[in-house]
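User: Teach me something about this protein's shape.
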Amino acid sequence: MDLYEKIKELAAQRKVSISRLEEELGFANASLKRWKTSNPGADKLTKVADYFNVSVDYLLGREESKKITEIVDLKKVISEKKPTSWDDPRIDWNEWVSFDGEPISDDVKKILFAIYGDKLTD
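Assistant: First, the predicted structure itself:
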């Protein structure tokens, strides 16, 4: 699988379109598609890897695992985002929590918000 295909797959898992991804990363329209035939700069490649919480080596096909073990300070994330509901568009649940490296379902998000909602909304 080439670089663009990996990015496309990761975007699909996050339910984000390629054009939305480009917008969020501040890339020009269709710039990711051009990566099929050209090599991106290290800075842009790093931005994509950070967005998906994967390593640059994973994107380049140099390692199999896409998971990066990193401790996320939930209190810091909560204080920055201050979500008002479980589906608040300002939050990215995948940034906070996963199950076996996979995104959690909306039902689990609702349950977590019901349990921790008062802490999440400050």
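Now, about its shape. The CA atoms of residues 39 and 45 lie 9 Å apart. The chain is about 50% helix and 0% strand. If you'd like, I can walk through any region in more detail.
User: That's plenty for now, thanks!
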